[in-house]
Amino acid sequence: MKTFLDWSAYDTYGIGDAYSGIPATGGNYAKAVAVCMHSRDCQNTGKGVMCPSYRITGDRKHSTEARVAAFKAALNDGAGEGAFADPRLDEAMDLCVSCKACKKECPSAVDMTLIKTEYLAQRHEIAGVPLRTRLFGGVPEWTGRYRALMRFAIRLRNSFGPIAKLVEKWLGVTARRPIPEPAPKAFAWTTPARRETGARGEVILFVDTFCHHFDPHVAEAAVSVLEYAGYRVRVAKPAATDAEPERPLCCGRTYLTTGMVEKARGEAKRVLAAFRDEIVAQTPIIGLEPSCLLSLRDELYSLGLGQEVGDLGKQLYLLEEFLSREYQNNGLRLELKPLNLPKALVHGHCHQKAFGAMKAMRKVLGWIPGFSFDVVETSCCGMAGSFGLEAEHYEASMRMAELSLLPAVRASAADTPLIANGFSCRHQIEHGSGRRAKHIALLLRDALVAN
Questions:
Q1: Name one Pfam family in it (predicted).
Q2: Taking the alpha carbons of 371, 376, 380, 383 in that order, is the dihedral positive or negative?
Q3: Fewer C-beta neighbours within 10 Å, C or N terminus of the chain?
Q4: Distances (CA, A) of 33 to 44, 238, 351
Q5: How far is it, in rounded angstroms, from Cα 228 to Cα 59?
Q6: DSSP 3-state assignment of 219?
């Protein structure tokens, strides 16, 4: 069976294991599906993230285990690629938010996010890519080429309810919440490094699509923090041979989650070409948006681009991960001042939790003198990229947020600082509570003694 992702990592899976039935068709993809051992951890409702859709419905059919069962049944029918037209898969995958929790919290490490990407790519091959999917998946392309037009169109839609309702009827984009608007000015990514030298060496800042076009102040704050810490900061730029040298680099995450695999592969190739020298030099590469940076570190391998992917992954860090590592291994000590703020609430992005990055978040926040905080025990915030913007999923999105995140925010005092590194998480919090959360880069920038 032709697959769009590289499933060769599963080639030896099932040898000597007590598998509960690898489907007869589907090759290594079928093996990836069959890693489920029916532990039913995905049907827990206590601590952890998995599985958001089961948590809000209480219905087993919306759990990871049931999704696996649906794929097994479809692949066992022997229809090859045609198995992906099975309506059972549409129903099973409807509420999957690609949170990555199953990869960490499932004892068998079922990677439903990649399983879903392959499923969507196969569906697109059969039925074509819907217009809404092309719009959501293509955010890096549209903002890179038509940013001013996008900003105007989104502001118009957000300002007039009748237009929002027309868009919902036409595209299925819910009229019940605003679409994030690009900032008035994008991040000035072509500006040379402000420091020619850095006592602690050089780092590369990977500014993702969302920080570049929507929250440039987050990237600017990160530059200030890293420079204050003694690093020379270079912003990642396309290679000289890039076909689109004027368009910033992109991790390809929006394309992967919408099943547009070839587009994602194209973005990944741009990233690898841009970082080829950095891979050789082992220069640290720092990202700000959890889903973007961790996609580069985890999901790039599925695109079959060779050994460089693994080498690159060893140099990729979220801002807080890098600072924590430098503190522990290389003697970094940031001189920070008290902020005199009330006790804060911290919400971790699903991918931060899935990849164990919350420990670094806690450590770095603890450097701010007198700063105290609680990490809210949450599952997925429910926004999950475009999921919360889809009209048919709006209610499910808000129910996920109401499990614990929004009640915790509302129960806190109005002046309680809210911290969330995820772009989608911050928008969900603002939509559901009317309050704004900050990225950790902004908090650290405010705490610099120089400010």
A1: CCG
A2: negative
A3: C
A4: 20, 36, 21
A5: 51
A6: helix
Distances (CA, A) of 184 to 187, 326, 378: 10, 34, 32
Could you tell me the strand order of the sheet in which 316-318 lies?
232-235, 202-206, 285-287, 316-318
Q: How far apart are the first and last CA of the chain?
A: 59
Which residues, including other chains, have CB under 8 Å from residue 277's CB and lie 6 or more apart? none
Same domain, 347 and 367: yes
Question: Tell me, what's the pLDDT at 16?
Answer: 53
Tokens of 415: 């002046």
Q: How many domains does the chain have?
A: 4
Same domain, 229 and 259: yes
Q: CA-to-CA distance for 82 and 141, rounded, in angstroms?
A: 30
User: How would DSSP label each residue in 320-366?
Assistant: HHHHHHHHHHH-----B-----PPEEEE--HHHHHTT-HHHHHHHHT
Asked if residue 180 lies in contact with residue 425, where contact means CB atoms within 8 angstroms, the answer is no
Distance CA 318, CA 349 (A): 12
Contact 249, 206 (CB under 8 A): yes
Whether the CB-CB separation of 99 and 387 falls below 8 Å is answered with: no
Q: What is the CA radius of gyration of the chain?
A: 22
Pair 114, 154 in one domain: no
Among 262, 265, 268, 275, residue whose Cα is nearest residue 250: 268
**Parts of the chain with a pLDDT under 50:** none
Question: In this predicted model, what pLDDT tens digit does every residue of 324-358 receive, in sequence order?
Answer: 999 999 999 999 999 999 999 999 999 999 989 99
85-110 pLDDT, tens digit each: 888 899 999 999 999 998 889 888 89
Token representation of residue 71: 């794929």
Do 319 and 339 reside in the same domain of the chain?
no
Q: Return the DSSP state at 26.
A: S
Q: Which of 319, 257, 258, 248 is nearest to 290 (CA)?
A: 319
What Cα–Cα distance (Å) separates residue 66 from each residue in 39, 73, 273?
12, 11, 40
- The whole-angstrom separation of Cα 375 and Cα 377 is 6
| Whether the model pTM is above 0.90 | yes
Structure tokens at 62: 């919306």
> Does residue 211 share a domain with residue 102?
no
Q: Which two tokens mark 447?
A: 């705490």
Q: Taking the CB of residue 331, how many other CB atoms lie within 10 A of it?
A: 8
